[in-house]
Amino acid sequence: MTLGPAVDALAVWLSGGDPAWWAIGLAAAAVWALPLMAVVLPIAALGQIIERKVAAAMQRRLGPNSVGLDGVVRLVVRLSLPFVSRAGQDRLIGRISSLPGMSLFRTLGLGQLAADGVKMLGKEDIIPAGADGWVFRLAPYLALTGAFLPFAAIPFAQNVVALEVPVGALYAIAVSGISVMALLMAGWGSGNKFSMLGGMRAVAQVVSYEIPVGLAIAGVVLWCGTMDLHGIVAHQYNGSWASFLGWNIFQSPFLLLLACVLFFAGLAECQRTPFDMAEAESELVSGFNTEYSGMRWGMFAMAEYSEMILVGAILSTLFLGGYQSPIFENVIVALPVWLETLIHVGILLAKFTTVLVIMVWIRWTLPRFRVDQVMRLCWLTLVPLCLFALFGLALTMLIPSLVMPADAQATILGVAYGRLPAMPHLALGLVGHALVWIVPLALGFLLVIAARRKHGRQHPALTQLTGGA
């Protein structure tokens, strides 16, 4: 495990020699924790604006379009220039508000972020009389910690990764489990039966859907031969102008299936519609966070949007090439380090922001599942699909021994990717790649035809849900 040369150098400077534990902690916070928070938390905050804009578009209305930065500008000017006359302050506020681009903030409703922040800070922090004070107070901090810690292992660029460990995929799954304790503590500590039921639902859902998430990640680990997230990104580099051809999602239909499973299981982990049964307002008022107000409620909201970003970042890293560009990645790698880093960070931000928008889109498209439907989908559909995909990947890795001569069955060495070494790939060849895609897709097509002959064009369960005959 390494925290990078920047952390090591700063720790040595702080301690004046052999770095002590406190120097390493301060250096890691200064180099990695604070910059990560400066990236993740603002995007999580923007997730609320994205949510409102997408909801407005789905419902044919404008959404936030009137709250700009006028109030923020006025507050800053009034507080920072008390020695200037009120007329002078008003003229300065008018000039700042007329600057190019300021009207865009009002059109997009970005001032709503500042308004929400002031509202959360100004709201009274109420703790119910029957609540367990320490448990009630600690839960939102644990929720935000569990949502934020996995980002330490996510590579944002070749030289931008906080925790480069050989078991990065395992680390991300392990530390995200902290949020389970936060949900149970919030439900139990509130002293409210509706909150308790919401906490129990949330824990049952999150713990269950960690199984398909782990199996989906295990499939990528099996294919790439490493749990190092940086190594998985390097494995997806092919060196041609069409960089996307090396991404895992295009290597096998089983990996494509695992990517879909990871997305929907991640949606359930974030407790987003249609898996938001833990916060069902029609049954549980608001679930585990019913009794929370002010900034503590805001921390749960920030944790939810941070988890959505985390799902997008993990999905992009495992299946969509990570921070790699879909085209001309070989050109980007040859650029100066500072420019290459900026481009790669921007590419990864674009990828997981797209996943975030899709999650929001789904919320305003699908109805909420019942509790039994959520659990049945996990254990009777997603888990078997993961096991089927793992079996298919294992068979795929045996193809070289079936279609190639014995002296050519070894894996081939990939292309070195910047500072990352070349990763070994399977030597499938043209025939092997054809078998990998044609056979599973043909079997899936036959299964669809057989299912339609048995159940008709619409499945009986869907007919029952829609009230059909």
Task: Give descriptors for this structure.
globular; 469 residues; mainly alpha; 1% strand; 66% helix; 20 helices; two-stranded antiparallel sheet
Structure write-up:
By secondary structure, the chain is mostly helical. The chain has 4 domains: 1-67, no CATH class; 71-108, no CATH class; 123-396, no CATH class; 428-469. Helices cover 66% and strands 1% of the residues. The protein is built from 20 helices and 2 strands. It has helices at residues 5-15, 21-58, 70-80, 86-97, 102-108, 111-122, 133-148, 168-176, 178-189, 193-224, 229-235, 253-269, 281-284, 294-319, 329-333, 337-363, 371-396, 399-403, 429-455, 460-465, and strands at 412-413, 424-425. Helix 1 packs across helix 2 (21-58) and helix 12 packs antiparallel against helix 14. The model has no long low-confidence stretch (mean pLDDT 82).
Number of domains: 4
Main sheet makeup: 2 strands, antiparallel
Beta percentage is under 5%
The strands making up the biggest β-sheet line up spatially as 1-2
Helix content: 55-70%
- The shape is globular
Structural class: mainly alpha
CA-to-CA gap between the ends?
Answer: 60 Å
Helix count equals 20
The tally of strands reads 2
* Radius of gyration over C-alpha positions, nearest whole angstrom: 25 Å
> What is the averaged pLDDT score?
82
